[in-house]
Amino acid sequence: EDQVTQSPEALRLQEGESSSLNCSYTVSGLRGLFWYRQDPGKGPEFLFTLYSAGEEKEKERLKATLTKKESFLHITAPKPEDSATYLCAVQSGSSNTGKLIFGQGTTLQVKP
Amino acid sequence: DTEVTQTPKHLVMGMTNKKSLKCEQHMGHRAMYWYKQKAKKPPELMFVYSYEKLSINESVPSRFSPECPNSSLLNLHLHALQPEDSALYLCASSQKIGLAGPYEQYFGPGTRLTVT
Fold it and tell me: Is the N or C terminus of chain B more exposed, i.e. has fewer CB atoms within 10 Å?
């Protein structure tokens, strides 16, 4: 069964304190792995798509990496405005339906 | 432009009411989705439309009725809802669906629905 697990559930950082969020996945052939950011009461905002092991993508203070079993979202020198829930989702290689399998999310709080 | 719009932002309805949620995108995307999200949970897929045809219904109760009038619009008709249906309803779109993907999904801001 396809599954996505994110850790930790919650993360508190001081401003400037770098850290990483983890997304472990079990899927029958990975078509793509997606990272989203979601602010309270709003829709998820697309951040990155990763396709194959070894791939890396960056956007401002965020860097996403992918291995055959997991993805990391590295946050370098975070600011309070980076506080949000970060969602990881995968699309199975056997799926032609567009269905995403989401993890439970990591809620990040960055204190000034 | 990667904008998906949803109306209304908030909706309060009684269990005997009929209401509709609307979603619009002008990115030329041919796949559109409805999700339901409860507090502190990830989005849960309800329906997928591909080229204006219903592709997936994730065993959603019939009190939720989707409609795709054209490639830019997606509606969700609500009737005789229960209090447990209160949630954030999200619309999303992607370029298409299929084995040539993956195609990232872009989400709207959501409609906060409260059923009293």
Answer: N
Q: Cβ-count burial of B35 within 10 angstroms (0-12 exposed, 13-18 middle, 19+ buried)?
A: buried
For residue A90, give the nearest of A12, A41, A20, A27 by alpha carbon.
A27
Closest residue on chain A to B108 (Cα): A43
Residue-wise pLDDT for A6-34, tens only, equals 999 999 999 999 999 999 999 988 899 99
Hey, is A80 helix, strand or coil?
helix
**How wide is the angle at C-alpha B67 spanned by C-alphas B61 and B70, nearest 5°?**
160
Interface of B with A in 71-100 (CB under 8 A): 88, 90, 92, 94, 97-99
Helix, strand, or coil here: A69? coil
Nearest 5 degrees, angle CA B6-CA B10-CA B70? 25
The residue among A100, A108, A10 whose CA lies nearest residue B103 is A100
> Which of B55, B101, B110 comes nearest A43 by C-beta?
B110
Q: What is the pLDDT of residues B63-82, one digit of tens each?
A: 999 999 999 999 999 999 99
CB-defined contacts A:B, below 8 A: 69
- Cα distance from B101 to chain A (closest Cα, Å)? 7
Strands A62-66 and A70-75: antiparallel
* B7: its two tokens: 């109306």
